[in-house]
Amino acid sequence: MTNACGRTDLTATAERIRKTLGEGPVLALTGAGISTDSGIPDYRGPDSPPRTPMTYQQFVGDAAFRRHYWARNHVGWRHVHRTLPNQGHRALARMEAAGVVSAVITQNVDTLHGAAGSRAVIDLHGRYDRVVCLDCSRVIPRERLAERLSELNPGFSDRVGDIEIAPDADAALATTEGFRVADCSACGGVLKPDIVYFGENVPPERVRRGYRLVEESAALLVVGSSLTVLSGRRFVKAAADRHLPIVILNRGETRCDALADLTVDAGCSEVLTALADAYTR
């Protein structure tokens, strides 16, 4: 395990990562840890509070759960909507522009990779800025739904005070009583964030695209993920099966440390910035 601290250590760590990964093409797999410097908390980082995310079965099976979710999301999504890419996101975009990083598979739903300039991005778990109707499959921008929810629940967001935000834009609220949920304006069906919930499968085409990227890559760089969830861990295992060099950059241990050629226990932003400098200078 490598620990990166000072400027000299960062430079040395970046050189070790570069030497391990080679000159590319490098596939990046990112998790919530890359977005913490943008003000979005991690689910499973060392300092993350315990949280039980809502499951797909709860959302589709219980109107009270849906009210609970949309009330919390109505408050929380505005925080995520205001966040900006950090140096880690921008470093990966720089490496893509330099021809080193071939693509990013992200487990995040915050859309910050695209905002930073990355072009080849698979949003494995969907995007927080879209909403889909479970009945007619219509997709609408989350911002349009926000307008409808504000009309149905005037002043709701202003009454909640200080809140804690999760990576999927969920906000911890004491009560959601009285919150009115909007149905699909086209068919009256149930609206759901275009996000893969716990208990829901990642669309098969996204998984196939991810595997193709592994096959086309010369190395894998994991950033900010504990690799607890199989949806991301499967690509690390696929890379290991192909004997690709694997580097894991994360605060704390991961489920795939034993498969990595190099593990780096350090902050994502500073190490990725140093790595981008090493590749582009």
Automatic annotation (TrEMBL):
Keywords: Cytoplasm, Metal-binding, NAD, Transferase, Zinc. The active site is at residue 125. NAD(+) binds at residues 31-51, 107-110, 224-226, 250-252, 268. Its cofactor is Zn(2+). Its EC number is 2.3.1.286. The keyword NAD applies. PROSITE patterns: SIRTUIN. Zn(2+) binds at residues 133, 136, 184, 187. Binds 1 zinc ion per subunit. It is found in: Cytoplasm. NCBIfam families: PRK05333.1. This is NAD-dependent protein deacetylase. It comes from Nocardiopsis lambiniae. The lineage of its organism: Bacteria, Bacillati, Actinomycetota, Actinomycetes, Streptosporangiales.
